[in-house]
């Protein structure tokens, strides 16, 4: 019933914001070191500068490519440094009633899922998603005079089908709908009210078990789908100076934590059969995302191709709407990945020029109650339809 990415029913004043673009480079790992691969990425973290060296350059002018980004993190950085530099500001904004998105982009095997999820233990290896859980509930526990309601949902886009990772029936796919007020939303998406870090971690674990993963030559446990974990933060408070009978002040922030499947060249991944089909769909959706970014940055196009993929439809607000957005681009330092790393850096460089218009989401109590009454009515109708179907089935079997 609930919206995956959406603006609330009314907003406060809008401010232009640039999408924050961050680049993270992982270290060379065991196999790469054993095979003698060389690091071709240099990073000046104080200046936000990335230098990519071309191992096959035939002319000095082709030897290096330089890029500058909002923030960069090299192979020595910690998970906490990445969270504080890339995501903490956006999580704070969601708690205060704004829409926020953090998404991770990059080639297969560059550490996107490590950046977004990391490991449960030890705590210093936790990624953006579990760190955001702690951030949200620590902020709530430390607040006074406010009442919060936190909801969580988890979906994936696999082979251009939207799947509810929390649904009881994992064989079903979900439909995307569009509403003038709600924007693009996922019909019948399961949401859970969560009251603490333990409960929201359980939601994540359930969804991860249902996620589509598979082995390629690039990554033994590669994500074969794009996933979006959404945290909705509703806050009700009475403001200083309000009369006793005044309606509470209600804000609704939505935080989208997005782990994109890896871009990949099929010759390098060794994809065949289902893996090849998955890779083709992944690359098409990432290409659609690139086209949307290009069209938005260009500013001359009257048509932005959001409808070219399910991913771009769901990320519409995050790329050009009412949302604070951070894009973390993960790259490999290895010399045999030069082309892929260059493509990722070019992709990220384009995204630096994206602008969104950010506004706080404020709803009236009456509108809020009306929305819940609508949802309750829909659920009652579904229950009534189910009872009718069961009764008809029983009558039919009784007549045999």
What does this structure look like?
This protein has 400 residues and is α+β, with helices and mostly antiparallel strands. 36% of the residues lie in helices and 26% in strands. It has helices spanning 30-34, 79-86, 88-95, 112-116, 128-141, 197-210, 266-269, 273-298, 310-314, 316-320, 338-351, 365-398; strands at 10-11, 15-18, 20-25, 41-44, 49-53, 64-68, 71-73, 99-106, 146-158, 161-164, 176-179, 183-186, 192-193, 213-214, 222-223, 226-237, 249-259, 324-331, 355-358, 361-363. The strands form five sheets. Strands 1, 3, 7, 8, 9, 10, 13, 16, 17, 18 and 20 form an eleven-stranded mixed sheet that branches. The protein has a three-stranded antiparallel sheet with strand order 4-5-6, covered by helices on one side. A two-stranded antiparallel ribbon has the order 2-19. A hairpin with a 3-residue loop joins β11 and β12. The longest helix is centred in the C-terminal third of the chain and has 34 residues, at 365-398. The radius of gyration is 23 Å and the shape is globular.
How are the SSEs ordered, and which strands pair?
Layout: E1 10-11, E2 15-18, E3 20-25, H1 30-34, E4 41-44, E5 49-53, E6 64-68, E7 71-73, H2 79-86, H3 88-95, E8 99-106, H4 112-116, H5 128-141, E9 146-158, E10 161-164, E11 176-179, E12 183-186, E13 192-193, H6 197-210, E14 213-214, E15 222-223, E16 226-237, E17 249-259, H7 266-269, H8 273-298, H9 310-314, H10 316-320, E18 324-331, H11 338-351, E19 355-358, E20 361-363, H12 365-398
Parallel strand pairs: 3-7, 3-18, 8-17, 8-18
Antiparallel strand pairs: 1-20, 2-19, 4-5, 5-6, 9-10, 9-13, 9-16, 11-12, 14-15, 16-17, 17-20
Helix pairs in contact: 3-5
